[in-house]
Design goal:
mainly beta; 60 strands; elongated
Length: 616
């Protein structure tokens, strides 16, 4: 009987172990899928060889010279049509029943007083070729929106160039488009622009596309009273996308620079946008893989569900109190160089933010980076030169990188209640949590804060990295502040210097000493720790005045005696005042000799040292 019970227990244990292994495998697979999605943002759209053909064969072409007497051109069959001349009131209508049409503009100046200048009502594919070394000008007039096809049906057009079918604009000439009635260029299907020089002025959108827009090697200048480029398909956003493969794009708009319902991708090129609303906006993903991008916008410079910055150089500036880069889901950076100037937040994500690699500079009058779920920094360089709070999220993980933060309030803040800027709670967020964690396993972190340096409304866990915090001089804040616990282990090096009024020491340290001074020392004062033989262990030269300091270093050995000196002088290489090695020029004044008889030692006056207290 006992033998049977043993077998049953053994089988039960095997089943439990199998279930655990299956669960772990499932979690791992989900993790791989998520990582794969993050690292592999797909760019839609390409330009075919035929679309790149800038010179059309005119051997069998029909040549048409437009004038006030020859002002209406009707095309109903496949072929090549070369159009030139000057016409003060006329238009071109293509009604070719799903056939391929080549329209070659050869120094054509065309004004339409009654409808669009070029109307493509029915065709399979139309190639609008701007002939090399020519200048062509199309201009419509206000108040007229209709045209009549051969059957007698009256239809409405909404652009100076208006197409209901696929349209390719190519060629090495110049095309000027004046949309005085509505939009400049409209395509209700897919539009490809290759190589041409195009200048668009419009009273509505500059370029409006229903399905896909692909641009490469063109020079496009748009001035519009609404969106510069409007690529929106409300019925089927997945069919819609806007892809810039290269070229030069200059947009001045009184609404969005580029507005897309599908993916908006920039792979290369020189992009300049001045917008009264958003610079780049997508209802799905904004993907930047290359190029030189300069955006000055009143609202968000970049806004999307996911914002993936995977390469290129971008200078982004906003002139109103909104975030510069806004994602309703996640922001992912891997390789871009980004320079942000914002009256609001630098980056704001409703879900997560991850910096894998790149070179990021943020000047923000609100938070540098804030997100409602998790903020992860794995590498790269992040320099927040101005912020209200530098980093803010319920969960922040730093595993690598070189990070510098200047903050008028908290440098790094684990805020379990997402906010909408300058401390206000964001009650609409679905990511509110009563727990949070600041976790640092590697990298270099420097914080210069007037509020708390490292602030967690829950816990802090540090297992690696080099961290220097130049904290507050006022006693209402602390260089290190936490509500639950602060645990340090491994090879982490931590310096936290600031005021003593709300100062805290780690709950457990790998080897930490917390010192409270009876006086306030001025900026540029150096703290030095030596071993019992007088050898250099660690030193720090303060950037601001301080009366409390926390020093954690694995060089402090359990059971050994050390002496802390103030007003010392050392020389060597430093990381924001931290000397991991150096030469002692002068020991200064001995403050206290202590023995590392526990993982965290407190010395000096402790009368002012307090625990944390539910501060934001």
């Amino acid at each position: 009987m006992k033998e049977k019970n043993k077998k049953r227990k053994s089988n039960k244990d095997k089943v439990i172990l199998s279930l655990i292994l299956i669960s772990l495998l499932s979690i791992f697979i989900v993790f791989l899928i998520i990582c794969s999605h993050i690292d592999n943002y797909q760019v839609k759209g390409s330009i075919s060889k035929i679309e790149k053909n800038n010179e059309v064969d005119e051997t069998n072409a029909t040549f048409i010279t437009m004038s006030d007497d020859n002002n209406y051109v009707y095309i109903d069959s496949a072929g090549t049509y070369v159009l030139s001349g000057t016409c003060n009131d006329g238009y071109i209508l293509v009604d070719a029943k799903k056939q391929n049409i080549y329209l070659v503009l050869d120094n054509l100046t065309l004004t339409s007083l009654s409808t669009s200048c070029i109307i493509i009502d029915d065709a399979s594919q139309v190639f609008l070729n701007i002939k090399k070394n020519t200048v062509n000008t199309l201009s419509d007039s206000s108040g007229n929106t209709t045209y009549t096809v051969k059957s007698g049906t009256v239809k409405e057009s909404t652009g100076c160039i208006y197409s209901t079918d696929n349209l390719t604009i190519n060629g090495l000439g110049t095309l000027n488009v004046y949309g005085n009635n509505n939009n400049g260029i409209v395509c209700n299907d897919s539009l490809t622009i290759y190589s041409s020089t195009i200048n668009v002025n419009s009273v509505n959108h500059g370029i409006k596309v229903h399905d896909a827009l692909v641009i490469d090697e063109a020079i496009i200048v748009i001035k519009s009273s609404k969106d510069g480029i409007h690529a929106v398909n409300s019925n089927n956003p997945n069919k819609n996308y806007c892809t810039i493969l290269g070229g030069t794009l200059n947009i001045t708009s009184t609404s969005d620079g580029i507005d897309a319902s599908g993916n908006l991708a920039i792979c290369d090129g020189n992009i300049e946008i001045n917008a009264s609303n958003c610079g780049l906006k997508s209802e799905t993903d904004v993907i930047i893989k290359g190029g030189n991008i300069n955006i000055n916008s009143a609202n968000h410079a970049i806004k999307g569900s996911d914002v993936a910055l995977l390469g290129g150089d971008a200078t982004l500036q906003t002139t109103s109190a909104t975030s510069c880069v806004k994602s309703s889901n996640r922001t992912y950076i891997n390789g871009s160089t980004i320079n942000i100037t914002s009256i609001g937040d630098g980056f704001n994500s409703d879900n997560s933010f991850r910096l894998k690699d790149g070179n990021i500079t943020v000047y923000a009058e609100d938070d540098g980076i804030t997100c409602d779920a998790s903020l992860v920094i794995n590498g790269g360089t992040l320099n927040i030169t101005l912020s209200y709070e530098g980093l803010e999220s319920p969960y922040i993980t730093i595993t690598g990188g070189n990070i510098s933060i200047v903050a008028s309030d908290d440098g790094v803040n684990i805020n379990c209640t997402p906010h909408d800027g300058m401390g206000g709670a964001n009650n609409s967020s679905s990511y509110s949590s009563s727990s949070g964690l600041l976790k640092i396993t590697g990298g270099y972190l420097y914080v210069l804060a007037n509020g708390d340096g490292l602030d967690s409304n829950d816990s802090i866990k540090i297992t690696g990295g080099v961290i220097v915090v130049s904290g507050p001089t006022n006693n209402a804040n602390a260089a290190l502040d936490f509500d639950s616990s602060c645990k340090i282990s491994g090879n982490a090096v931590l310096i936290c210097a600031g005021s003593s009024g709300m100062a805290q020491a780690p709950t457990t340290g790998s080897r930490s000493v917390s010192a409270t001074f009876s006086k306030t020392y001025t900026a540029d004062t150096t703290i030095l720790i030596t071993d019992s033989s007088g050898n250099f262990v660690i030193a720090y030269t303060a950037e601001k005045s301080f009366s409390h300091i926390v020093i954690n270093t694995p060089k402090l050995k359990y059971g050994k005696s050390y002496t802390m000196y103030v007003s010392s002088s050392v020389s060597g290489d430093d990381f924001n005042g931290l000397y991991l090695s150096g030469t002692i020029d002068s020991t200064g004044t001995a403050f206290e000799t202590f023995t590392m008889n526990s993982s965290s030692v407190t010395i000096g006056s402790t009368s002012n040292q307090m625990g944390g207290g539910m501060r934001r």
